[in-house]
Amino acid sequence: MTLSADHMFTAIGLERTVPDGDCNSTLMRGTWEFFVPMPGDSSGHSHVTDASATQGQSFGVIFGSGQSPVCSGLTGEIQRDAAGLDICLVEDGDEACADDEILRHQ
């Protein structure tokens, strides 16, 4: 998966990483945006994606484009473990990735 500064991405071979195999295409494109606190939410628990955000710990992913998305939107969680930084793609931010679902820089 390659994330670019213009909030576009391309990915190859994510079908084994994306939960429940929702995406059946080997080459995928789409957009991504960092999550930020929802304006007016004093609790800090509600978040929305924001195209102008330049940093964050998680980001929303939309596969496909416009009227015909390839699969449902996902959340990318940026994590650090003993092997370094990685990304876990989940449908729900409360989910976790199995070891074979984690995306690592190679």
Descriptive terms for the model:
mainly beta; 106 residues; globular; 8-stranded antiparallel β-sheet
End-to-end C-alpha gap: 11 Å
Instruction: Figure out the total of helices.
Output: 0
Rounded to the nearest angstrom, the radius of gyration is 14 Å
Overall pLDDT: 77
How would you classify the helix and strand content by structural class? mainly beta
The amount of helix comes to: under 10%
Report on the biggest sheet.
Answer: 8 strands, antiparallel
Spans of at least 5 consecutive residues with low confidence: none
Tell me, briefly, the overall form. globular
Overall number of structural domains: 1
Number of strands: 8
Give me the oligomer status: single chain
Content of β-strand:
35-45%
N-to-C SSE series? EEEEEEEE
Can you characterise this structure?
The chain is mainly β and 106 residues long. It has one domain. 0% of the residues lie in helices and 42% in strands. It is built from no helices and 8 strands. Strands 1, 2, 3, 4, 5, 6, 7 and 8 form an 8-stranded antiparallel β-sheet that branches. The mean pLDDT is 77.
